[in-house]
Amino acid sequence: MTSPLEAKSLSLVREGNAVLDGVSFTVARGEIFALLGGNGAGKSSTLLTFLGFLKPSGGEVLVNGQSVTGDVAAARGAIAYLPEAASLYGHMTAYENLDYFLDLAGKPAGRADLDAALDRVALPAEARTRRLRSYSKGMRQKTAIALALLRETPILLLDEPTSGLDPVAIDEFHDLVKALAGGGQTVLMVTHDVYGACQVADRVGLLRGGKLVGSFSAANGERIDTETVHAAFAERQAA
Ligand SMILES: Nc1ncnc2c1ncn2[C@@H]1O[C@H](COP(=O)(O)OP(=O)(O)OP(=O)(O)O)[C@@H](O)[C@H]1O
Q1: 35 lies in which domain range?
Q2: Where do the ABC transporter domain residues begin and end (predicted)?
């Protein structure tokens, strides 16, 4: 079966620097794959390549089996992308943001649908008519996830999704991502948080210096062992 996301021997050069070097992985439908790496490892660049903002200098990336460079619009249409700082408007309320971005996506929705999505991400009802500039980061993320739900994109790309969240918000966020994956969403997240990656992911890939140097999976429905991944991460960073 075609994987929603696939990187095939992906190499990327940015301003003369080799940023990714022969990276290959697939993410299956309903799977959460976390790409773990230190600063500058190439994590964000990988996401930008799936979105067609950066072009591979070698190999290719595929979304639903189609080369992204061949059809950028199809790839972007299938993907909801949460950058580290959610890209919604601070001067608009949650309802206004959702209305605006859904109109842009050609998928307008009524108030009942907006509320259903905001209920699903547990954004308090009283907050929905407030401007986003008064929101916590967790609340902005919930709004961004609600938008992804309403756009009905089958794929979620998350860049450092829990940085700046408090521990309760992190747990809530992980539960939400797991519930979405349980419903068939395919999730690729990039992070330098070993603990978070092991908590939420079905599989963790270790990216270092633009190369995928390790991979960890959870056996029998258990969580990935944080100690093992942490040791590998620390060792690789030192290497
Ligand atoms: N706009 C840019 N132009 C040129 N090179 C860039 C640009 N942005 C990042 N790079 C380089 O690409 C490499 C990978 O950066 P990238 O942002 O993908 O790493 P990352 O793993 O996401 O790091 P971080 O955890 O710090 O966000 C780095 O060496 C970085 O200097």
Answers
A1: 5-88+154-238
A2: 5-234
